[in-house]
Amino acid sequence: MSGRVWATPAGTGRTFSLFPKSSFLTEPSADLVAQYGYTWDSSNYGGDSIQVSFPPFQWPIQKVSWDAWVEFGLDTPKDCANGDKHGVCWVPTAQNSETVQRSHAGIGHYTNIAAARPNLDLLPEHKVTRLVIDKSQKVPAIEYRPVAGGDVKTIRPKREVILSAGAIHTPRFSSAAVLPLPRTSSPSESRLSRTSLVWARTSRTTVDPQSPSATMPPAQVRPTSPTTPPTLPSLWHSSVSVPPAALTLAMGNSAAYVSLPKITSQYKNIVANIRKQIRDRSALQYLPAGAAKEVQAGYLAQLEVIAQALENPEHPILEAPFATGPGTAFLLKPLSRGTVLLNPEDHDATPIVNYRTAANPIDLDIMVTYVDYFRRLYATDAWKALNPVEVAPGAGVTDNAAIAEYIKNSIIQSLMHPCCTAAMLPRAKGGVVDTKLSVYGVSNLRIADLSIIPTLPAGHTTTTAYAVGEKAADLLITRWKKDCKA
């Protein structure tokens, strides 16, 4: 779904075929399928580097939550990883099912293959400081030094440079280049979270988590006050007995993905307000100060694409992952844009990030509708059986302005999914790279990380990052295959 959204402002076609290449699914046993109802589509997992799996345990309350979403009218697709994510579905964990070890790029794309790849080198404990672009040279030079400090050295690549520093650090290299690179799409995006309600049960009874009647994790493992890291293990290991399999659960394996038309009957008004901002260009006042005219043009184009997504009954705007009851709701398509800037006192330092959360007030308008949506969700028969009570913002808080204030005071500004700081867009719309990932105006320099996507996907960014890597690999193989020995 997001591939189609990207295609419009970027002028490209869909690239969904790259996504299944990132992971290999270890299918759950028939017993686990019968017990928990796991479903999946194996055609969505055609890779071999990153392993994903379903855990051998779910808290019984997960089914209560699932049943509530179904009662609320959500579809239950077999898998939400097929490019059209909507409804409530199972989501595997990036985890080796045998070792219960997190599966990530360091293992799948380096440790497991390094011994068989003598030309695959990694220089740990060092950092790149600058790209040196000399018009007399075909390829940018790379300056680097030890992280702990030391002399700066220079590498002069023969063919090309692939910049893959991530959405936060990639702009630093273009800004700190010896010769100016194309101006990066400085507005950044990051998913917003926690706009739902806080609920509690009317009674708290410690239960045996292995009992079929258990609905919640034991109260002892849900501290009501902040717990410091040194004391948290003691809660698990000395205060409560839980099935060992529960420790494989990570953050949960089920999630609801909901479109704006399913959240609120006011969606047409919200979309109309976005289009009004486009027509009268009032949206530009919500961009960071000094945004280039090309960035402004790109932002207006993105807003129209987002407006189309928000009125689409099958395009998710809300994500609510859950292992117990839904505790957070993510805004998947924020209109606000942040900045990633060089530290003026030390260009080698970590960039200065300003999320500019809810700079565009329509983001708050959307998140206010989440509160009413979750109130109605908790009024379903599935949840009413547990007698939930709203704790925050409180059932008496119904005024939209008051709800907006609650959201401002409780929101998590980022779910650590930054992107879009060197977008694949036409140069006239603030783009930094073309459809071959090449940086405009610079020879033999490509960017291959999440900075190149124009807007956030309607899901998580891990698989998206791997898909960008697959795209870069295909482009490099096509270009250099004839010049490299087999």
TrEMBL record:
It holds the Pfam family GMC_oxred_N. It comes from the Eukaryota. The active site is at 417 (proton donor), 460 (proton acceptor). Keywords: FAD, Flavoprotein. Gene3D superfamilies: FAD/NAD(P)-binding domain, Glucose Oxidase, domain 3. Residues 202-229 are annotated as: Disordered. GO terms for biological process: secondary metabolite biosynthetic process. InterPro entries: FAD/NAD-bd_sf, GMC_OxRdtase, GMC_OxRdtase_N, GMC_OxRtase_C. Residues 334-469 form the Glucose-methanol-choline oxidoreductase C-terminal domain. Residues 59-172 form the Glucose-methanol-choline oxidoreductase N-terminal domain. Residues 202-214 have a biased composition (Polar residues). One of its GO terms (molecular function) is flavin adenine dinucleotide binding. FAD binds at residue 128. The keyword Acyltransferase does not apply. Its cofactor is FAD. Belongs to the GMC oxidoreductase family. This is GMC oxidoreductase. It comes from Parascedosporium putredinis.
